[in-house]
Amino acid sequence: YLFKTTIMKISRFLSLIALGLLTLSLFSCNKEPQPIVLAGTWNSDTTQTMVLIKYDAVEAELNPVAYNFLRENIQKIRKNLIQPDQLVFDETNSVLFKMKSGQDFAGTYTKIDEVYFKITNLVFPDGILGGCDNTNLELYYPRDYILSVISGILTPQDPPIENFDRMITAESGGIMLFRR
């Protein structure tokens, strides 16, 4: 009799554990992502703006002055990215880049899927990609844009932009964070 009641208690305990695990799995984070809602004002968090420059090691060895220029000027490159203070989205697929200077850039956006979208405006006529989780919004600056920023800060004493173009790989770019 004692053996039978012990087995029943263990069985009941294991059933409760299984029920608890089933409940957790139903209400866990394994849900589909909620569709993004871009409408509204997003404020920049410039402390989270990043520039990532990956380079071809052979080209860097062939162009040590260009490589050193990148190392010494990464913060200057970051500061020269177009950094809107705010992004203002409306439900008609319009977006406004509100700049510190007071000069604003109007554009349009297209949702790509539940997380990603593309903004097209005067500054980014080919578009700039973004991602959002309804709390944070990120803009992804492409390699070519980073190269144009580098080109804008080069002086006649610096290596030509072609050296950077050969050295900087396709994985390079920048990210700017916005919050509601």
List keywords for this structure.
alpha+beta; eight-stranded antiparallel β-barrel; single chain; 180 residues
Distance between the termini: 64 Å
Give the H and E element order: HEHHEEEEEEHHE
Give the rounded overall mean pLDDT. 85
Overall, the morphology is elongated
Helix and strand composition category: alpha+beta
- Reading side by side through the largest sheet, how are the strands ordered? 1-2-3-4-5-6-7-8
> Major sheet: size, sense and barrel closure?
8 strands, antiparallel, barrel
Provide a count of the helices: 5
Strand residue percentage: 25-35%
Query: Could you tell me the number of beta strands?
Result: 8
Instruction: Report the radius of gyration as a whole number of Å.
Output: 25 Å
Percent range for helical residues? Answer: 25-40%
Report low-confidence residues grouped into runs of 5 or more: 16-28
Could you describe the 3D structure shown?
The protein is of the alpha+beta class. Helix content is 36%, strand content 30%. The chain contains five helices and eight strands; from the N terminus they run αβααββββββααβ. The chain has helices spanning 2-26, 57-62, 64-79, 143-153, 161-167, and strands at residues 40-52, 86-89, 94-98, 104-111, 116-121, 128-132, 136-141, 173-179. An eight-stranded antiparallel beta barrel has the order 1-2-3-4-5-6-7-8. The longest helix is centred in the first third of the chain and has 25 residues, at 2-26. The protein starts with a helix and ends with a strand.
